[in-house]
Fold DUF2784 domain-containing protein.
Amino acid sequence: MLPSLAAAAVLLLHLLFIAFALLGGLLVLRWRWLAWLHLPAVLWAVAVESLQLPCPLTPLENSLRQAAGQAGYGAGFIEHYLLPIIYPAGLTPAIQLWLAALVVLPNLLVYGFLLWRWRSR
């Protein structure tokens, strides 16, 4: 039971990390100090997507699921949980580049706005 709960916790952490990398810039508008956490998260998310690196949370979740007697999954988190919802086809390098751009663009807007506001003072 404990490995199953731990696998669910890793899954939740994985999803929260993706949401933070994608939308955390909005939190930085309110709490500037979060930029020290958010910018590395964005860089990691973009690197994982654009360079097709494996995320360390996926094998951790898989090993916890297997320890709980459940089947792990062979693909990464995005391929297993998010891609079937967003894209019916398989994950390709081109799609991964688009996902990386999806992380970069809203954050460029937020940080561009912050830079503009800082320079106008």
Notes: The chain has one domain: 2-119. The first helix runs from residue 2 to 30. The chain has five helices and no strands. The CA atoms of residues 22 and 54 lie 18 Å apart.
